[in-house]
Amino acid sequence: MNALRKIDKILNRVRSVVLVALLVSMMGMCTMNVVLRYLIKGVSFLRPFSWVNEMMQMLAIWVVFLAAGLGVRQDAHVSLESFTEKYLPAKASRILHKAAQVIVIATLVLLIVIGIQQTIKMRTSFLQNLPISNAWFYAAIPVGCAYLLYEYILILVFGKNPFASSPGEDDNVTGAF
Question: Where is the Tripartite ATP-independent periplasmic transporters DctQ component domain positioned along the sequence (predicted)?
Fold first, then answer.
């Protein structure tokens, strides 16, 4: 369990650092283009960059796929539990909850496989305004789904994520998100 805890801590830190870096980059690019578009109008060689909007859209894809795992980790996503606990017996509710988890895990495995295939297929396609392969952005699907799969497997095995921090806990970066 200690080895799994260390692996979890590393995976969670990497995800959190990447998310912060992506969000800071997006804010910087957006601010830069706003300044160039609205505040520095008269200078002809200082124009907004055409690639910023495209890049921000692609980075937003990464943010969504990586942050989804944080929502699962903190049990922040909408779930069936409130409905099933209210209208079904406890045993039926538990069975339905486990079945839903298995379906989600199977779907995530499928998304990882298809995401890898699409990433490989898109490696020769490039962004319109930058010489960056679209594969970098399609890679968000298998990477984000792998994080989600990891979180759901922990929940399936342990009943809930054993490493999720409680609100207000300082030792986990995700508590700030």
Answer: 26-153
Strand partners, 133: 126
pTM, rounded to two decimals: 0.81
**pLDDT tens track for 43-53:** 666 777 888 88
Report the sign of the C-alpha dihedral through residues 168, 68, 79, 111, in that order. negative
Structure confidence by residue, pLDDT tens digits, 96-133: 888 989 999 999 999 999 999 999 999 999 988 889 99
In DSSP terms, which residues pair with 126 in a beta bridge?
133
- The residue with tokens 């099933």 is 84
CA dist., res. 58 & res. 61, Å (int): 5
Q: What gap in Å lies between CA 177 and CA 160, rounded to an integer?
A: 19
Percentage helix, strand, coil for the chain under 3-state DSSP, each rounded to 5: 75, 0, 25
**Among residues 89, 46, 85, 68, which one has the least CA distance to residue 151?**
68
